[in-house]
Specification:
The complex is a heterooctamer, with two copies of chain A (80 residues), two copies of chain B (259 residues), two copies of chain C (358 residues) and two copies of chain D (183 residues). Chain A has 80 residues and is of the alpha+beta class. Chain A contains three helices and four strands; from the N terminus they run αβαββαβ. The chains are: A alpha+beta (80), B alpha/beta (259), C alpha/beta (358), D alpha/beta (183).
Chain lengths: 80, 259, 358, 183, 358, 259, 80, 183
């Protein structure tokens, strides 16, 4: 994490996403969709019983919104 | 993620479409119905049609359309959405009227209704979600089920000698004079999703320009009933499904005066 | 109004056409249907007339499609009608159940013919159960009107639209081949609406209001139970407010014929003949088959010696008669499935019941 | 007074037209009337028939099992309706196409009128044979007044064929006079 | 047979599956259907098992197609079955009327759910009218069997095939979501045919005999009237020979519950409780809804103080109860549309009727 | 004609086909249903199938099939003949099973049943008589009614903007994988009648060889409801009807192993 | 007729047809179908009310059976 | 004696399997038993539940409004069923996923068993959490004999997974001993 933060500081991220923890159904579709590989599956289980996706590598995010377009549950919002 | 980072980005480049009600869906994890719903909502927003639209929901996993799309919606009996939409459109030709149907709904029980709506050149738009199975009822064989596919009612795999062939609705409907637009799309890659949006826009335009019947067939997934992880389900769409059901535009009317 | 003037207004038409005239008078501008004998005059009339008054006639590819066109136009808030006969009405049962469940008004006309199956085109009252008990699933009900003359084909068509709107429910006109195909003079009384036709629930696009929907699915908790009781209260209200019947010479009658539609029509002649012979015969003619005039029947049952149920089937309304009265021992039945009883037959039956030689 | 009649012949002979005319005339005379046509699946170009009931009272059955009168325009219809006519009833047959010898029944008041021949030779149009027969029937039975029939012709003849009304009046009259002369 | 052996033979299965086992035992080798909750176990079971025993499972494109596949196979002289639920059964009404008119046997299973319309999948007895009065046109009838246990799902399936063949008529099993979805042990008693399965009328090609046909059209003269009386005599025969019911503690009862299927099942617990408290409660459980045990009901009505009709709807069999007895004043009704009554509720009602505090 | 002449010619070169019952038909004068019936009977005779055949009659002017064709016949509800035939064929795969249907029956109410029978490759043969109207019920508009054609329910003529286009079933069904043979024929000239016979033979062969679904569409006449003399009705078939509905073979499977 | 008979005698007919008088519905389809123009519509009306077709010029008949093939009511039998 | 239990959890936790096992065991013991599963349109991978009724008498309702016991394998199921349990009833919760603090009701005989943890760490398979919970429930209530459960395992486990029977026995036993130790 610390490393990641450093890296982020180095090449400044161009965008940011937010994943709705409770709505995520852990389908994993966003993971390979992100061209920058910013998303990973998490461990924490939400009320639906799903281990939601997490924005693991924010430093690489370009704000391209491909992840959001790929999420069938519209859990992802993107800022730039 | 630091709070600092949060503040830096102020322009929302992706948000829930306005016409998509802000509630959690009932769809299974990784089900592409969610993507089709979102594209539908985005297109309604794009054309600013929210307040002039009447949707017609099918019976299938998408029956709850009215919980998700923020427009007036009628619920049709299983397979009859194109007939209900006909009744709506004839009564209110100034409204934008669409149906949203599954493959059991449209290609099995509703075959006659969709064919005759198309043949009449009924000025409505059909979104057709083909996931090669009856999702809602637990994964039975559909007319679109692939050869060899095992389902809860084809436990030995679909056999053409007994059950016939997966039916290609986009192609079939394209042959009818009244059809203005017929395309098949998928939503398994970001590029496909973009193309799907374009197709839905085209279909909307056909109705707006009073060109006749328009349909977009989505190759979709049903991870639950396919017994697959969502990512594997997507691969199936990219592989055998789009091989048998080729993506593309099968008909696109160019002129408003169509005879 | 003097007699001459009244005669002036009389028009000579088929019953099937009179329904159309009544429907159009009541503001119906949408008709969908599929051909079937003996009601083809209705779509034919509508296809010729509706386009000339800005209305819409559309022939559907089937009766299944028809009832769903109807559903869509009704959901749009418009008065809409269809008509068919036995086999076609059977195909509409799913849609009718959906309309009842979704609380959508419409008028459905059954100019019935012989069954079961393809049967034949002879007149019949074999569809009583289907109409009155409602052949679709889920146990809904609908007002069922039984005209016995061209005049009533006209006036009950207007009433059917009002009942449908009043209760947000399909309403049925149950005619038969005779009353549909025959012509006789009738008076074109003006349509006087008895209900508001405002339909705030209609799906007209959600401009200026939250979105709304028309549906029959109730999944959560006991919503469907609540919905069923709500519908049931509507049906109870129909039973309280909508019973219609004709009292034909019941005053002092000892034999009460119970018959509807064409069977009642023919019975009138027989009763006239019997009265002339001093036989105290009369008739309770249900005009609404649902709601059934059960209370009236029970009243009459107390006073008469015999309830003679006459139907052009093997006994269907008969069951409603039994359910309505405890005087089961007074009930007699004359059935003519897929055939009209003649006045002579009924007269003979009345004489027999009155203890006269034939 | 109640009376009734079944009219029958080949399709295209104008059977339904004369039934309608008779009914409308009765209506205009302020009486109760019902008219019931054959409908449905019979072969087109085959047979046509209708039943008319006229009464001063409310009419029960518009269909009649044993008619008081028949107007029979072709052979097959005679076979079909002859046995049904009430005893002592009226039977008008189109002698141009129906052999009077086939009637047999002696109890009927038979009028055999060469309707086609009269229509063709006297009226000038073979099409009007049924109208001739109607004139004869009405003369025979007094079901309605002849004048009412004349007056009602415009109600059954479309605008397009208006010009043939005088011809129809002639046909009715020819039928009437034939019947009067063969009473 | 000792108890151990009997226990040995018990199998633990869903009601829906037990129907299949019964059907196959009775020689059914053809099944056609279309998916619908809550009966999907039936096509799923049949699709897995029929091919292994030389049978044919075919999924139809709709329920309309289904019932016509059934018609074709029945006309070929084979035992054949389908199953569905409310909306699907509605779509079969035309076909059922044709089969009744053409005198074709088949078994149709309705594992009913909530209505009207799409309704819901909660258990319900809202399809009573549709099944018992027959929702198709033309006023035909069919035997309607109402299982209340998995054991009966099995045994009544076998009986249904025999009744269908005996009368050359469709027979219906009217279950509900509960009795279809529940599992319980049942004993696989052997199938003992009670009718001959010879079908000389079947369409098998006219080798060595004149051609024959299966049809419901009767156009000439009064053929359709004659045909209707013929059918009516069959229905009368059913009423004479096929009434089946369970007498549950009616001996000395002062309160007689009248209930079928799941409602009856639940009532049994309540009656057990009531009996323990000294309340003389019992139950008449119709097993055949048509023919309805009306004569038995009238007998019981004479002896008891109260007839408590319990249905999972707002009152349908209630009408048959009224038509069957003149003791209308003894009738009470407890309705639970689209929801199961609990034993507690019924027990409470029994206590109230027995004049006990709650 | 002299008696002498009569005796000279002893070889009967044309007689009623054996499978055609020797009764007068109920069809109107000049109705081509009669010709189609005769061709059907001749083909049954040709293959010697009379005793192994089960026919399925439709609802329409041809409902009385069982009075005319000397084989076992089931009467199907309107439009459902292909479904009934499916039930017969599945139960008795060794029997020859055909349906005989009108255009209202097959192309309107029965659309779904015929499409799915074709799609399943159901091994049955369909004779489809297209007379552009509902003959039996009095000449209403059918899905095959020509543009501009006046019928009892299109009194102002069929208008594509309202009623859509005459549907081409032979072409539509030919697009389905399960269809082995699809052809359109007419019977308005002696040459056409010969070709029609050939097509029906082919269709029979497909079933005999277990190749799948076969259909022959007849362009037929309905002089009564067209309000035309029989000879004029034939001319209409030869003219505008065969212009819009081209005669020909739309699909013919060559090999028994069809996948 | 006499003339026709003569002609027939000259070029002997090769075939003969029989038209079922009662079954004929006078549709006239056989008339133009006959390549030899042997058939005409008659005057006599049958029980169905139809003026049936008649074999008017037997002398030209070739027995080709085209008329029979064209008759929707299967009224014609052909001998050769 | 009549008893009943509702078992509920996420889909995939094996809820229906343990309900079946319990039912079959009761049947083998010669008792009346009904088993009723949730069916229909709920989201797959969502929740699963079933109701089992055991009795020495003929069973009426197979569905129970107020169960005598509940086995709750996940959070949402606790919210749903907690209020329904009869006063003084038995509640077995899967402490690995359900917070015992949320139970609140003091009248219940609560057993909070870390079923997932026991399954994973002691039995060696996370899949068997429900089996652990069943063992605990049966120990608690004596609904059937443990041995019968063991004996019936082959009837609910397909041939393919036969080899896991001993593991299932262990899971049942671990649940039983946990319950015994936390009585
Ligand atoms: C007349 C009728 N038949 C059957 C059903 C049951 N049913 C509900 S949804 C469905 C199939 C849904 O499959 P599909 O249309 O492919 O939609 P999906 O759930 O796969 O999106 C069926 C058969 C019904 N509701 N009504
Ligand atoms: C369900 C149903 N709807 C309608 C009818 C009425 N009907 C009988 S035949 C027919 C149409 C026949 O037209 P077509 O199939 O073209 O045959 P044709 O008579 O022209 O040969 C119709 C609509 C019916 N019998 N059943
Ligand atoms: S916005 Fe683009 S880069 Fe950022 S997480 Fe989403 S897909 Fe990856
Ligand atoms: S695509 Fe959406 S639902 Fe799926 S894992 Fe990613 S955020 Fe969660
Ligand atoms: S069952 Fe299939 S189609 Fe339905 S929501 Fe789940 S994944 Fe989607
Ligand atoms: S109505 Fe038309 S199709 Fe029917 S028999 Fe007459 S001409 Fe032929
Ligand atoms: S057989 Fe040939 S030549 Fe002779 S009449 Fe017939 S068509 Fe003419
Ligand atoms: S074709 Fe046949 S029915 Fe027509 S006129 Fe000739 S012989 Fe007569
Ligand atoms: Mg699907
Ligand atoms: Mg036709």
């Amino acid at each position: 994490m610390q490393e990641a933060a450093k890296k982020g500081a180095a090449a400044a991220p161009k965008g940011r996403i937010e994943i709705d923890f409770e709505r995520c159904k852990a389908c994993e579709l966003c993971v390979p969709a992100c061209p920058k590989n910013c998303i990973e599956m998490g461990r924490r289980i939400n009320a639906g019983g799903f281990a939601a996706a997490v924005f693991a590598r924010p430093e690489d995010c370009t704000g391209c919104a491909i992840c959001a377009e790929s999420c069938p549950d519209v859990c992802i919002e993107v800022w730039r | 993620m630091t709070d600092r980072g949060k503040d830096r980005f102020t322009k929302k480049v992706y948000a829930r479409p306005k016409s998509l009600v802000d509630v959690k869906s009932h769809f299974c994890p990784g089900c592409h119905h969610g993507i089709a719903h979102r594209i539908l909502a985005e297109t309604i927003d794009h054309f600013g049609l929210r307040e002039q639209t009447v949707g017609v929901a099918c019976v299938g996993c998408a029956v709850f359309l009215y919980d998700y799309i923020d427009v007036d919606v009628a619920e049709a009996p299983h397979g009859r959405a194109p007939a209900v939409a006909t009744g709506v459109k004839r009564a209110q030709p100034d409204k934008f009227v669409f149906t949203y149907q599954g493959d059991g709904d449209l290609a099995a029980i509703g075959t006659s209704e969709v064919i005759h709506a198309a043949n009449r050149g009924e000025n409505i738009t059909v979104l057709f979600v083909n996931n090669t199975t009856y999702g809602m009822t637990g994964g039975q064989m559909a007319p679109t089920t692939m050869l060899g596919q095992k389902t809860s009612t084809s436990p030995y795999g679909r056999d053409f000698r007994k059950d016939g062939y997966p039916i290609k609705m986009a192609e079939l409907l394209a042959t009818l004079e009244g059809t203005a637009y017929s395309a098949r799309v998928a939503t398994s890659t970001p590029a496909q999703i973009r193309k799907a949006k374009e197709a839905v826009k085209k279909a909307f335009e056909m109705q707006i320009k009073e060109m006749g019947f328009s349909i977009v067939e989505f190759l979709s997934t049903c991870p639950t009933n396919w017994g697959m992880k969502p990512l594997d389900a997507q691969k199936r769409v990219l592989g055998e499904m789009s091989e048998y059901f080729p993506l593309g535009v099968y008909k696109e009317r160019k002129q408003a005066d169509f005879l | 109004m003097n007699v001459a003037a009244r005669v002036e207004q009389r028009v000579f038409m088929k019953g099937n056409e009179a329904i159309c005239v009544g429907a159009i008078a009541a503001g119906c501008r949408f008709y969908y249907g599929y051909p079937i004998t003996p009601q083809n005059d209705i779509p034919e009339y509508m296809s010729a007339h509706l386009p000339t008054i800005g209305g819409t006639f559309l022939q559907a590819e089937s009766e299944v499609a028809t009832i769903n066109f109807i559903l869509g136009t009704s959901a749009s808030g418009k008065r809409v009608m269809t008509s068919s006969s036995g086999p076609g009405i059977s195909l509409m049962q799913e849609g009718l159940s959906y309309m009842a469940g979704s609380e959508l008004p419409a008028v459905v006309v059954n100019i019935s013919r012989s069954g079961p199956g393809l049967g034949g085109i002879a007149p019949s009252q074999g569809d009583y159960f289907q109409a009155v008990k409602c052949g679709g699933h889920g146990g809904y009900r609908m007002p069922v009107l039984a005209p016995h003359s061209v005049q009533e084909m006209y006036s009950l068509a207007m009433l059917a639209f009002d009942l449908a709107d009043k209760y947000r429910n399909p309403a049925m006109i149950l005619g038969d081949a005779i009353v549909g195909q025959m012509k006789e003079p009738f008076t074109q009384t003006p349509y006087v609406p008895t209900v508001s036709q405002e339909k705030p629930w209609a799906l007209t696009g959600c401009a200026g209001r939250p979105r709304q929907h028309v549906k029959s699915l109730y999944l959560k908790d006991n919503a469907i139970e609540v919905h069923n009781w709500k519908l049931h209260r509507k049906y109870l209200k129909m039973q309280e407010e909508e019973v219609r019947y004709e009292d034909y010479h019941l005053d002092g009658a000892k034999i009460a014929v119970v018959a509807f539609g064409t069977a009642a029509r023919v019975s009138k002649t027989a009763i006239q003949w019997a009265r002339r012979e001093g036989i105290a015969a009369g008739m309770l003619r249900p005009i609404t088959l649902f709601p059934f005039p059960g209370a009236q029947l029970e009243e009459i049952a107390k006073r008469v010696d015999v309830l003679l149920v006459i139907e052009m089937n093997t006994g269907q309304m008969l069951e409603d008669v039994k359910a309505s009265t405890t005087f089961h021992d007074k009930i007699r039945f004359l059935g003519k499935p897929c055939a009209m009883p003649t006045p002579e037959e009924i007269h003979g039956e009345l004489r027999k019941l009155a203890g006269r030689g034939r | 007074m109640t009376t009734d009649v079944i009219m029958a012949g080949f399709g295209g002979q104008g059977i339904l037209m004369i039934g309608n005319l008779l009914s409308i005339a009765a209506m205009e005379e302020g009486r109760h009337v019902t008219y019931f046509p054959a409908y449905g699946v019979e072969m087109r170009g085959g047979t046509a028939n209708c039943t008319v009931v006229l009464s001063d009272e409310e009419i029960g059955s518009p269909v009649v099992g044993r008619p008081r009168a028949c107007v029979v325009m072709n052979g097959p219809s005679l076979d079909r309706y002859l046995p049904a006519i009430r005893e002592g009833g009226d039977l008008v047959i189109n002698r141009s196409l129906v052999d009077p010898a086939k009637v047999g029944r002696k109890d009927l008041r038979l009028l055999a009128i060469p309707a086609n021949d009269i229509a063709r030779e006297v009226v000038g149009s073979q099409q009007l044979a049924s109208m001739v027969a109607l004139g004869a029937y009405v003369q025979r039975t007094g079901a309605v007044r002849m004048q009412t029939l004349f007056d009602c012709l415009p109600k059954v003849i479309s605008k397009k064929y208006e010009k043939f009304i005088p011809l129809n009046v002639n046909a009715l009259k020819e039928g009437e006079s034939f019947a009067r002369n063969h009473a």
